[in-house]
Write a structure and sequence with these properties.
With 43 residues, this protein is mainly beta. The chain contains 1 helix and 2 strands; from the N terminus they run E-E-H. It has a two-stranded antiparallel ribbon with strand order 1-2.
Length: 43
């Protein structure tokens, strides 16, 4: 998991953007239903 900053709602203040990812970058080779890149938490 990582966190980045961005201006997401155009109010001029920095917002936090958490990003998901599986800790094992080779997980897709062992389990096809589990992906390294996971969807964003924000809609």
């Amino acid at each position: 998991m990582a966190v980045s900053t961005c201006i997401g709602d155009n109010d001029g203040n920095l917002d936090l953007l958490p990003c998901n990812g599986h800790p094992d970058d080779k997980i897709e080779e062992r389990y096809s239903q589990v992906k390294y890149k996971e969807p964003l938490l924000l809609p």
